[in-house]
């Protein structure tokens, strides 16, 4: 599915939170969204998912404007794992993941064996099959994060959007999540804080003060100049002797107080 | 909490549950007709029902037949409809506004309905064109809109919602008292005060033909949105991301809740605690999924209110205690338990 955002933006409390973002996501690519806190990454993700009222510009899914599509059809194509998710209901992990099947079910298509299988696969994909019967409340932050990702996988979307998905995850699960989304074959957009993880994306977009100031392959976009201007850090570029890949080590700039 | 694996097993379970639920409801209705100040034997009740429903030929004691057919049966049926409607209203509000303390009584919707009904009855608002139920509906809708707007303006949190509900209830209760003081004579005032606390004494057959269809329609409206209500577990935006047309569902279900509350209040007065306590009690047994929660809450609410009505008739010999008093006597301690349990979880 080709996703095209044309001049999208959103205003709140009298200021532009996101302004004039143009973006085309090619089928199957992994797109990393980076930028400092409050730069509008989460808002941009919600805009692309069509979740914000009074949005400016338009988002096209395979040429169809998203604001004219029924919510159900959007949800069959786009899944969003929000940055924060919590519930007061005493849901089990399986209950929560089954919610991902919602856009595919109706009175005439009730939850069936295929849905059960999709849920089982989603649970297995993020290594939480053993938690299926456990209560949401009893999970750790990282386990909850993986439940939300399983819920999104169960949605069988063509565009998967993840808002800081590696937050709360231990290093093993961070790496296995990144490998998982790389191998899904679907378009993935994720907001990331770890710039070295962003280096693994096909392309990255850099958000600053609501605008996308750069977009392209990570090796071209993530440069010492960008890091000092946007993230206010200095960086040394190192080479991993294992596979010759580039990685950054950061330090605070001397003239920054 | 794993469901049956095969669709066939599921169909069987559903059939059994529905049959069991209907049987329980039937038993409760029978109990409501048999038990009373003058206990009438089941055989008499059976004979009356056989004659009235199926045209059987029996010689009936006209007084017994009158008590059963004109008084006890209609009030028991209205109690059932009312209990189901209130429990569903509470459940749906709790799920939609994501607040364990949401309920039409606490959020001021019942108070608004009372004000609307009183305005129509004693002030003659609407000039006879608007019925009591419609007046109650307008009052309930106004109250809900006001409370929701206030809660939103105050920041939209859980506590704000409850506080706005208190403000709304107080305002509409004050308006009701004001209308009564201004326009009602002493006898009217007494009657209305009795009705305000919840009272099924005046219920007759025409009330049944309003209460039961509204409760059934409300039940079906909730049931077809069971999956959408599940999707609200992680909040409004998550429901939208799962494909639920959030605004339409909210509007429709809040409309259904307002209608159910308004009709029940206009018939029997504002009965508290049913909507608050029943869904919480039922969740313990059925878990959080609405496909089970909705029918179970409706059934439990119906049976609970029939039982409360029986108690209200029997508690003091020769007198009817307002049913709202009975539900509060049971509901307030249960409510206290919910509060304590929520504190432990937080
Ligand atoms: N509903 C809202 N009303 C007002 N301001 C908002 C709202 N949502 C987000 N913001 C503001 O927009 C900015 C960008 O937020 P966000 O998209 O969450 O940034 P990021 O995810 O990049 O940290 C923040 O400064 C935040 O305070
Ligand atoms: Mg964010």
UniProtKB/TrEMBL annotation, chain A:
Keywords for the protein's UniProt record, in alphabetical order: ATP-binding, Nucleotide-binding, Transport
GO molecular function: ATP binding; ATP hydrolysis activity
InterPro entries: AAA+_ATPase, ABC_transporter-like_ATP-bd, ABC_transporter-like_CS, P-loop_NTPase
Domain ABC transporter: 3-234
Annotated family: Belongs to the ABC transporter superfamily.
Protein name, per record: Iron complex transport system ATP-binding protein
SMART domains: AAA
Tree of life domain: Bacteria
UniProtKB/TrEMBL annotation, chain B:
Keyword Transmembrane helix: yes
Topological type in the membrane: Multi-pass membrane protein
Keywords: Cell membrane, Membrane, Transmembrane, Transmembrane helix, Transport
Cross-referenced InterPro entries: ABC_BtuC-like, ABC_transptr_permease_BtuC
One Pfam family recorded for the sequence: FecCD
Signal peptide: none
Gene Ontology annotations for the cellular component aspect, listed alphabetically: plasma membrane
An example Gene Ontology molecular-function term: transmembrane transporter activity
Localization annotation: Cell membrane
Family per similarity comment: Belongs to the binding-protein-dependent transport system permease family. FecCD subfamily.
Protein name per UniProt: Iron complex transport system permease protein
Species of provenance: Paracoccus sulfuroxidans
